[in-house]
Fold these 4 entries.
Entry 1:
Amino acid sequence: MVVVMSPQATETDITAVVERVATAGGEAFVSRGVSRTIIGLIGDIEQFHALNLRAMSGVSDVMRVSTPFKLVSRTNHPQRSTIRVGGAAIGPDTFTLVAGPCAVESREQTIEAAQMARSAGATLLRGGAFKPRTSPYAFQGLGEKGLAILAEAREVTGLPVVTEVMDAADVRLVASYADMLQVGTRNMQNFALLQAVGQAGKPVLLKRGMTATIEEWLMAAEYVAQRGNLDIVLCERGIRTFERSYRNTLDISAVPVVQGLSHLPVMIDPSHSGGRKDLVVPLSRAAIAVGADGILVDVHPHPEEALVDGPQALVDGDLRALAAMVRQLPPMLGRQGPG
Amino acid sequence: MVVVMSPQATETDITAVVERVATAGGEAFVSRGVSRTIIGLIGDIEQFHALNLRAMSGVSDVMRVSTPFKLVSRTNHPQRSTIRVGGAAIGPDTFTLVAGPCAVESREQTIEAAQMARSAGATLLRGGAFKPRTSPYAFQGLGEKGLAILAEAREVTGLPVVTEVMDAADVRLVASYADMLQVGTRNMQNFALLQAVGQAGKPVLLKRGMTATIEEWLMAAEYVAQRGNLDIVLCERGIRTFERSYRNTLDISAVPVVQGLSHLPVMIDPSHSGGRKDLVVPLSRAAIAVGADGILVDVHPHPEEALVDGPQALVDGDLRALAAMVRQLPPMLGRQGPG
Amino acid sequence: MVVVMSPQATETDITAVVERVATAGGEAFVSRGVSRTIIGLIGDIEQFHALNLRAMSGVSDVMRVSTPFKLVSRTNHPQRSTIRVGGAAIGPDTFTLVAGPCAVESREQTIEAAQMARSAGATLLRGGAFKPRTSPYAFQGLGEKGLAILAEAREVTGLPVVTEVMDAADVRLVASYADMLQVGTRNMQNFALLQAVGQAGKPVLLKRGMTATIEEWLMAAEYVAQRGNLDIVLCERGIRTFERSYRNTLDISAVPVVQGLSHLPVMIDPSHSGGRKDLVVPLSRAAIAVGADGILVDVHPHPEEALVDGPQALVDGDLRALAAMVRQLPPMLGRQGPG
Amino acid sequence: MVVVMSPQATETDITAVVERVATAGGEAFVSRGVSRTIIGLIGDIEQFHALNLRAMSGVSDVMRVSTPFKLVSRTNHPQRSTIRVGGAAIGPDTFTLVAGPCAVESREQTIEAAQMARSAGATLLRGGAFKPRTSPYAFQGLGEKGLAILAEAREVTGLPVVTEVMDAADVRLVASYADMLQVGTRNMQNFALLQAVGQAGKPVLLKRGMTATIEEWLMAAEYVAQRGNLDIVLCERGIRTFERSYRNTLDISAVPVVQGLSHLPVMIDPSHSGGRKDLVVPLSRAAIAVGADGILVDVHPHPEEALVDGPQALVDGDLRALAAMVRQLPPMLGRQGPG
């Protein structure tokens, strides 16, 4: 941490900062300049936060320089992690395709979509039984009935299942059906939920909040990790910007940056990023090329009838193109494809 | 709703849209232009969403024109509402001051802050027992012990209490101590929580998500209302923008716009908007002048020792200036002050 | 400036930074911590930028701590400035109303609007002869013919004229007709234009770029000031955010923050911020209350016929309400009204 | 265009809209619904804008549905264009590498960088003689002396030169040295400059404004095209968002979207997007994979000494990696590499 004193700060102000830091067991290094004095702090950063130095007389700014996340940081864990979900692996050595319907609508639709996913080379099945919807009048998902359908689709296809949980009270129920728990973009800072999934004994897929900074996203992962669960996969799914041509703006730079900061795998969701079917294939190609550890795509046997997000679901032709690309492109770039 | 067909759309495409709308009990009006055809839809908009028209052949865009929220809308409820919390009223006839410590840290600090709040003319006491924090290593609040301290502060000062609840599972507990339940910015789309507070039988203070559109915010209020609770107060607390000089950017235009769209009261939180003490008084003046129904401010007897958000808490001198302004300015602008 | 070394930085890296700083005539203060070393720099910051320290081995970040603008800064010029334009004053002692048509469309419309402006208490007439338009097919303004009409409106009403100039090549021409030169939001970083208006010998109205940070805005003012012209008035006119209910989001917090950083007057344009007539009066009230030095509003005798931005122009009733408010509210808040 | 009437609109209001549209030679189609009436307009959209329908009584919204750009649109020009600059081609059949120093600092540095660029497979040399800088105290470029150095670098390497022009008054001068004129991000809506480069008889590289929507960007291109110059290459260079880990956020989705809307080539600038050297190679891989028509990268023989943007310039090792990728990856994806 660095404390920047204002030009008007007095010697008494400076001494007061140094002494307060000392009471917290820290060390303070004073650098005097022509117009300002800067004080560098060494010690426990959380202790320093509690000192509330910013409110002291003569202090103009307090800047943090050390990394605020620990367990998910790559600093103490330089090797990138591989997370296993059933038979599927997500990590630096493979490129993982997760596919399935955005929402579980019926037994038939889900099983058909799951078979499409498997044929396309997916090693993990996605599907929503609990759906977060902006409007209370929109379809909210089938709930436990949907979970049972997903479990049946797993029986039929052999693919492990990842599905969203929206409330800490539902974690146990969802974990009893699913192989991996998804925390969605609107719940990225639902801290009770993060702590509950951290204790559930299942791998977690943590989507980035649509307006979360990378630091906030990694701090959310730290909440999960702190409860003893390091089986976390991060998923970039588009951020909110001023651009209105697509639903959200895929932040592709986040992939190499997060892989540099954290040992956790990072996937991309090209379906939700754009909300447009015509962007799924080009953004998936970009995801592979930039070094993402996998992608999550929506598939639907009959997108025209989809209750949720039909416009972005892939159908047969596109899905075959995607499947071919997922088989061929990663090896060209020095990485194994799925399965 | 308006369906815009692409220039390449065929007659078959147009007929298919019209027929699908008819199956949902709606009417479709076809307007043919030189280069495009536009189809206007009349009927139940939620039904139309389920039709997934955007995915049909020849459709280039689907635009919604009717208002998506009903219970909180001013269309069917032209008179602006007044919400009562204990003895306090929030609504178009008064200007309400809510004050208190950002976090309940101790019995002494809370009672001292509550007395500061009452002296300044506040009619409602705010204070956090459960604190949402970006970092799992930061102070998370005193929990139920904090709720008991708030209840004691109510005894001492006579002020009803509003406090945040972060998880649906805690709603019953928090409601047993508090007079009003706050849903914070990070939980504005925690739909399980919205539904739980909608059933708790207490008024709700719903803060705007820091990156929520006005429509999303009103839809979140609709979730609460749909469970039978229309005692909702909205609170604008700054949105996330590119500007880095303040923590968030107060969206003051939201006040008249939301008051035009909804009958619910709208308050402003000048403390969290800027995260800077020096902005609290000018932004409070702007809040009164723009027509907000009240403000929420942080006070702390000793901001230098605050565990959370000390830099934005008002101390004695500022608080007296604020109190004087809250007494004098609203009547000048044709509205009663607090109390 | 503060140089933050990475945890992997070696002693050689640290020495290299210190020596490079010395070659530029600066001093470096080394603070060694448990995991990182921080180096504080004292000296000429522009020299330090040229050193490109960020690219040196072992450097993790370089942070600037001193203020980058000098001539417009309040640090060396604590008293807030008053700018005079013809008989009108803009500064801390008055509240200035600038009004007029968004675009000069005809002699009749302009003179009628100018008379409306004067009746409402405006002391400065605004009007656009050169109009920056997103589309090349939209009305681009009357050019010099429009300037002549504005000069005639000045004759008739006695109000000095402020009008936009879009290209450095037009500065001399526009300055020969106008009393104050406006640099618009799209040209805030047109540096050739900034330098040209800095040499034109007329006061300058510098609108904030719709996505400019406060620092970039003040640096743009510094470009003007550097050419010898300190008669600059800043104007906040809404920033681009994710919110779609209004054209732009008025950043009202910018007013007290910029007034703290710079001695220049700061106005608000409530017409362009929202792009909605119904927001002009509430945002003008907020502007007065927050402490702005004036407002700029669009008026039009027949908004239904306006070629540009008709939806936001005030007509008679609203304008009278605004005029009454501009007379009454500033004195209540301890400031003189216009004129 | 679609006019949405408010629920309160009267028959007189509706008739007034229809008649006004007729006066402009347009046709209006009225669709009456249960709560609202919608009017579709067919005819000349610019004429309709001049009607200012939004300000008419009973009108709640006016929505544009046809495409606002014409000359650069793909609608009337379905085949994607190839632009030639000296011997270099930019378009759908090749992948073009443009490389060079961010700023021309000296004869030696520029020629050395140009030779690095050619060795890496670049077919076009970039370099700035006029530099737009946020601060007036920062290095502003060598001006005409820099142009002469670039011309000499062209002699030595055979590479045609693209360089930025910042002011309409300089277009003739810059065009006398350069093979292609760059309009930078801060000048994307400097309409005088756009018109001047449109008349200069040289191809234009039009960078996206850092906060411009795709529609505004294509309208800026339309300004150039309207002056008779269709030799335009678009360049995405990162947009401004809330994320602070990189200078700007590369909007990779813009590439397929713009290629769908316009026939013009679209390149990516991975150096300026992130402002970080470590992102150049991964973002360049993503650019190739997503289908961009080329990339623009900064190279510098001695980045530690660079006066501008040294932290993002590639040096030998990285540049060789990039060069190998640019040779190998496009053919794998069905496109020729440079040269």
Note: The longest strand of chain B covers residues 27-32.
Entry 2:
Amino acid sequence: MAFDIKNPYLLFLGDAPDQLAAKTANGVKVWRPDWCIGQFRLPGCKADLGLPDVSIEEAAAKGAKTVILGVANRGGKIADSWTVELVKALELGMDIASGLHTRVTQVPALKEAAAKHGRTLFDVRHPTQDFAVASGVKRTGKRLLTVGTDVSVGKMFTTLAIEKEMVARGMNADFRATGQTGIFIAGAGVSIDAVIADFISGSVEWLAPENTADHWDLIEGQGSLLNVSYAGVTMGLIHGAQADALVMCHEVGRPHMRGLPDYPMPEILPTMDLILLHARHVNPDAKFVGVALNTSNVSAEAAAAFKEKTAKETGLPVVNPLIDGVAPIVDVIQKG
Amino acid sequence: MAFDIKNPYLLFLGDAPDQLAAKTANGVKVWRPDWCIGQFRLPGCKADLGLPDVSIEEAAAKGAKTVILGVANRGGKIADSWTVELVKALELGMDIASGLHTRVTQVPALKEAAAKHGRTLFDVRHPTQDFAVASGVKRTGKRLLTVGTDVSVGKMFTTLAIEKEMVARGMNADFRATGQTGIFIAGAGVSIDAVIADFISGSVEWLAPENTADHWDLIEGQGSLLNVSYAGVTMGLIHGAQADALVMCHEVGRPHMRGLPDYPMPEILPTMDLILLHARHVNPDAKFVGVALNTSNVSAEAAAAFKEKTAKETGLPVVNPLIDGVAPIVDVIQKG
């Protein structure tokens, strides 16, 4: 895999200015609690994941294999106070996996220490692997892709919830990560928005390769065909995934598309139709199996009404994965 | 501009093994004959553009500003025999613009000579500029985008033919290049298939910025929404271009999509419908103004029949730009 990040993890929070800055680390803790042996915080850190605070030495003693930098750093630079601790981690046998924009592989002290101690530095936002151009050749095995009306509508959460439900039912399924938080959670994956344009769909063919007939790759979606900033990424995901099953994700009550005040939020049904046109180009059997709603910004009444309306219009199970779980969606998948 | 390549040019053919290896240089010669002061060939060169053969010294004396490496090199490496001549060109005050996969900026002798003599090395396949994420905000000025059923169906040729016709009519128009040959022809542009996935549409917004109301940006298309290898690039082009006018390009008689034996060539009409869905998301006034056919692989009879059928189905002018020119398409654009 492009990234092969060993667990257990030490979640490095540094001097995170608030809880939101540790959003990525929090996602790892929520979805992979067994992999997280603790959190590391410097003086002044305002984030807390509710994990034991451990020093680098204690983490090493407890068997931590990788320090996860799942935190937004200040000013785009890695502070010297961080470097000192991270060098210690490398000396004590841990790798470092970073979700920062700043590359840890370009911090001289870390590069030298990693080389000296035979450790690996992963910049998960920056794929280093070369991918092939997509072939479009049909692969065995089953694939699910989460898609959406916009960015940040719950695609990763929904995909992980489906993985959890499938695994609980004894199904053969793997979450396939396409973003930084997902990559930490999977220990592998492709930061697809950072891939060279020619290789977007090719990187997805690589991420979700041929598999046994009963196996499900659950591919984390990104962007939206209707989000004009990122639709190229989404297009490549749809073509590369060759999805058998699609799950539509949507945030109820969002006033306009994220970052695009000129673009109202798309309606669910026409967006599904548009996506199907492209999904069926690579897999004529592609179909939607459910709708996942983020209803955290509307009243319970509004949420219930929207859910009912959407279920009626689509004829599919409509859930808020956070509240309802995704069992009705997995039921549809199992029925085939 | 990302690349600002000064002319006149010296077209460097090196030891090109055949005429096809000099395809890019030939495109520059065809579309910008006035910029090309000559060709440079090493012993064993099997390509000939029909330009005067000049030495590096003669090119410098004639005022060449840039050496264009518009040729496929053998084995992906720049031979020492090339380097010697290219260093000479840098010493004599020329820049070098390369369309090779191998980066001239990574050949130590060239890097050193360029630094020493204050010259610039352009690797046009490798954008070095950072682009912003697309905003989708409507820009003034008019834009035309060529699109197609597949890759390599004549989009660049059609776009350049339209520029030529518009300029001949005194219209205010600029060709905007998105591939290596186009970049040499324009002296500027973005090699869009090499842009990071998140910035595809943003790079097009940058390439074809706000302009005066009467101005036309004629944007060179790439790929196809139905070519599963490259559709992400095409999607970003469609969203970034906010095209007022679209021209559909197609090769008659191609047995299947380029490089994709499992995918038959798409029909023109449904492909146009699909493209319009996306083009109108960013510009509700987007419409097709013509169809450009490459008919070089079918008989004259078959070509004529296909043209007639397509004109009837689309209600648009249908031309083979190479034979018929593009005047009927520009007529439609002028009528508005």
Note: The interface with chain B takes residues 133-138, 192-198, 200-202, 225-226, 228-236, 239-240, 259-260, 262-263, 274, 277-278, 281-282 of chain A (CB under 8 Å).
Entry 3:
Amino acid sequence: MAKEITNREENYSLWYNNLVVKADLAENSAVRGCMVIKPYGYAIWEKIQGALDKMFKDTGHVNAYFPLFIPKSFLSKEAEHVEGFAKECAVVTHHRLMNSPDGKGVVVDPTAKLEEELIVRPTSETIIWNTYKNWIKSYRDLPVLCNQWANVVRWEMRTRLFLRTTEFLWQEGHTAHATRQEAMEETQRMVEVYASFARDWMALPVLIGSKTPSERFAGALDTLCIEAMMQDGKALQAGTSHFLGQNFARAFDVQFASKEGKLEYVWSTSWGVSTRLIGALIMAHSDNNGLVLPPKLAPLQVVLVPIYKGNDELSEIAEYLQPIRKALEAKGITVKMDDRDNVRSGFKFAEWEMKGVPVRIAAGPRDRAQGTVEVARRDTLEKQSVPVAGIDEYVIQLLIEIQANIYQKAHVFREKNTFTVDSYEEFKTRIEDGGFFLCHWDGTPETEEKIKEETKATIRCIPTDASPEAGKCMVTGKPSAQRVIFARAY
Amino acid sequence: MAKEITNREENYSLWYNNLVVKADLAENSAVRGCMVIKPYGYAIWEKIQGALDKMFKDTGHVNAYFPLFIPKSFLSKEAEHVEGFAKECAVVTHHRLMNSPDGKGVVVDPTAKLEEELIVRPTSETIIWNTYKNWIKSYRDLPVLCNQWANVVRWEMRTRLFLRTTEFLWQEGHTAHATRQEAMEETQRMVEVYASFARDWMALPVLIGSKTPSERFAGALDTLCIEAMMQDGKALQAGTSHFLGQNFARAFDVQFASKEGKLEYVWSTSWGVSTRLIGALIMAHSDNNGLVLPPKLAPLQVVLVPIYKGNDELSEIAEYLQPIRKALEAKGITVKMDDRDNVRSGFKFAEWEMKGVPVRIAAGPRDRAQGTVEVARRDTLEKQSVPVAGIDEYVIQLLIEIQANIYQKAHVFREKNTFTVDSYEEFKTRIEDGGFFLCHWDGTPETEEKIKEETKATIRCIPTDASPEAGKCMVTGKPSAQRVIFARAY
């Protein structure tokens, strides 16, 4: 495999696009803005799903499935919600095709027009709250803690594989509670679940905070989020958890009889992460040789490559490596033996580096004679000769170390690129180089908008901070209760 | 819980509908023909997915994801395919809504009309083969063995929860092969995977066979299927596996360079099962008390119900049952302790019977004094007093026995209701009472159609039969190579 991707330092954006394609993760489809998630990319999504699904169930949630289509009138029921989504909707207007009168292909059958148009769900609050109306009558029916794994469609103008696509896969949790307090706790609980997942599985350090009112989800009273730093210093929002107050309960008239027998509107939350996480994973850790995957999300954790000349040597070496494969598999490690005979081992090395396999084990006749193998780790590209005896324990430890090292590296990078700045002039200069900027802001949407227009930086979040430091807005000099995080973002 | 479902013997169809709703499996949504799969129903689907997904991977398949939308022109590329699906398509024509000029709600923005309409996938052969075109260049790229878990939409006129819905969840395998032989073997392999799954997990005996040409998938050269008998004697097609020949490869011009360096069209298969399987599960095994679930697919396998008066007794009995719960969970059994204090135990018994939990364990003060529990099995409704010592092993054996018994019962029922008939007059009378009929047919679509019109019975399949018996068509008297299965079907 020739070196086929652009250098990260040359053109970060092109590096990312090249990498997604060359590592066989995804590709653009014939449908504008929709991607094909290829088997290797989908295997990462399956790992993400598996880990998150367990975390959701461990926190008391169950899965369900709601319709793909939303009647147009439902969207309008919550004023801010429709404002937020109406402009990027795929609209189904007909339910039948017919043979074209000119005999060429098919056309929409005009007699099969729907009475009410259907929207392909951009998110499911409206259809779900219309359903919850029938499920919730009494405080005994609460809480309702449902999650859905689904596809959604948002007609984005500019799309990029994984980061922003017309159709994407995600999970959306939708919960219903008897009290404001409970719903707020749930909102917090789930953003923390996302943060733990990012840290423990994706090896990705994230900041937790609230969005400003202008960056909130359409229909939310508060949006909590996790924000991660990519290697170009830009921010990526990796997950959101919304406190929706009683907005959707009011819009769909969902009331319950409280313990005291009073009718009250239900409190709600929603929260989601999507295939965008795969984009985050790539952008946070990978290098000019390709993907770097944290072992816990790598579809393949170890690849075995026999080094040989001729078929006799191949079978000798393969026989030498076979027990290693078995020993690793017995420990639950995912292993592949790459014994292809139509490509050279240099090609194989490059290919598995491109695909981000955390550990490569190679052996040739000399290793076999010595009872050793060559172990290469993907994160640092270091190689070491290791005795075969005890190789399974060695690899287990190495995978743990790699997982920790990838996190540590990302953490150090973020710390190095997080700046406390008080002067707007300084901010305007330094934002060009990327990074997170801790600055004072006067809390008004006008100042937020001005900064965005002048610098392309947005407030990523108002960090959840136990001991906030008061100060003065870097633009207007008006009082600020705490520093917020500014960055340019994906 | 009052007895709330219609008797199966009175009105089978209403019994089914009642059951789906009362057992909390699914309900109709606000969108015509689309269902909401409720958490309990979705939990069954997750079990089905888990088991099938493993079987697919064990036979060398990988998962991927392809776009929800199909450009209209793609559908037309395979002539039979478009004929089969054009009349039941959800068509996306616009990508934006706007505020209604009258200020009330939103309307479709006429300026946001798509150049080419998009079809919400009714099945994905076309979009996938358009993608495979770029993946397959050489024999070394073959086989391609992809599966996709997805939602699909078919605008059915008459819908029924799980059995036939506008949107449904399914998996669709799409494979590409270098030779006709290999593709035919794959078609056979996957229908056998489905048959094993039905037998081993769903406790459902099925017949394997080929569809007649008029019942084939639109675009297939051969459709293999599994057919199951429901308790009203009607047939339900539970899964299909299609040999597509080179039809889609030709339609999308997918050729590969063979080992010999010649350009050849690729051979293909597709195969799928859907949430319809949940309908089959319900219809095949359940009774007038509710669901009967095979233990291997039951979201809850054991429910513990303390029998008590007053809070003191409750805590005593709960304490008595707690170790049983732990012992069962330690063996990997899914257990729920139902210690609700707002409903009586009779209500609980009825509720868990309705939900088809295979084993119920109840205990009151007298059981506690004796060191026993009352174990009730859902399939036979038998109860037995069992010593607490060794209860975990007892329950494990009982679950195995229940799984086997449910299968056995369904098998006996099918055998009892499968008839060999040679006279068309006799056939016309007896088909009214349901059942599978093994009859001779002359192999013509005309005779098949005549029988369908006169009796509403269709040929469910031409069974895969090692030693076919030749005979004469029951309608025309013309020669027949083997008996085929006739039945009325869902």
Note: Residues 418-487 of chain B form a domain with the Translation Initiation Factor IF3 fold (CATH 3.30.110.30).
Entry 4:
Amino acid sequence: MIGRFTHETRGKGLHEVTRLVQQVVDRSGIDEGLCTVMIQHTSASLTIQENADPSARRDLQDWLERHVPEGDPAFTHTAEGPDDMPSHIRAALTSTTLSIPVVHGRLALGTWQGVYLWEHRRRGSGRRCVVHVGP
Amino acid sequence: MIGRFTHETRGKGLHEVTRLVQQVVDRSGIDEGLCTVMIQHTSASLTIQENADPSARRDLQDWLERHVPEGDPAFTHTAEGPDDMPSHIRAALTSTTLSIPVVHGRLALGTWQGVYLWEHRRRGSGRRCVVHVGP
Amino acid sequence: MIGRFTHETRGKGLHEVTRLVQQVVDRSGIDEGLCTVMIQHTSASLTIQENADPSARRDLQDWLERHVPEGDPAFTHTAEGPDDMPSHIRAALTSTTLSIPVVHGRLALGTWQGVYLWEHRRRGSGRRCVVHVGP
């Protein structure tokens, strides 16, 4: 079963989409299986991260800003602005697809885990994800 | 089919869990299919790496220690200690889920590949993984 | 359904394999499902990246060369040469497996996405991938 969702990000950072993914699992009616999410962009990505203290997500964002900075003079792919090339690198270092087991109709995430869409462009946009749920 | 295992790590580094994953594949009775492993934590992760020379794994650990160091003064998420925030970053840079084809009842790993649980906390703990095996 | 392909790389960089993966999907006859690709090596990896402007891929390669450089004096795993250990780290930071939903018999990639085999060794070699396609 294939589902889709679009999430409007409005700037950089980790946007939780656990509920949107779980809604596709709900619609699938599958009790035990596998749920795979793929983001159809190369300047935003996915990650499973801590859903408790927001400071962890701020520090994650800050680390990427410092270690894959905008304005690196070595970049040549700069047509779309200073946040273009860092976005591709940040996406390559994190994940474009995630597969999560489903148990009793729920994503089998750990207690402190959430599914996050990681926006790497300054302005953000409507980010499209495709979800597959199978037995 | 869903299986689970818990692996007691006792400190940082790459702990091989190939045999634990293969045992779930064995129990599934599936001859050809897909095996997905997810770790239910955000301060430990998964990777497929070389299972031959242990110096490769030591250098991997050392690289993370140097490039995502403890005690970075920019970190604000420090309530659980100096190894807390680096653990989240190290997990985001590696993998939380891995999907491996199954052929003739075996994980279709390359000759030199093993599945590793990468512990990022100093003390380690009982790390829980959920495994899905489907046709 | 399991398929395989071998891609001869002839040096470092991102080699597009979207067509090779799609060919396995075609042979499977599956209209809606999930396609998983795994590379059976630990010194090459996989990524989904921009398939339009080649400068993005050159900058990705250049970033890894600068941030996970050959000749790091801290490396001890050097038996196979200066590009050996950086290859393992670069593989750990990117992906060994990718799962992509299949819709209407096609990989459900975004408009600007392609599947790439990322060669990390100087000389390259015949890189083997295993592909699973399921409903």
Note: The radius of gyration of chain A is 16 Å.
